[in-house]
Amino acid sequence: MTSFWLALSAAFKxxxxxxxxxxxxxxxxxxxxxxxxxxxxxxxxxxxxGAQKDKDYFSPTEGKNPYYDPKIYKNxx
Length: 77
Hints:
Blueprint: H1 2-48
Organism: Epilithonimonas hispanica
Protein name: Polysaccharide deacetylase
Transmembrane segments: 27-49
């Protein structure tokens, strides 16, 4: 019976080592993906919006927002 518990203990020890290795690999993959997103975000901020290029932005909805349309609130107060 002792050999059974020793074998079961070895199996649990191996499985926890497997889970530990899997978690480390998954953490590295998530870290690399997050680093890629961060570098892409920095690229967008510096290249696309850098050198005051954001002042050239045209908003297709500017002035067309119905929440601030005076015709809607002309009968108030």
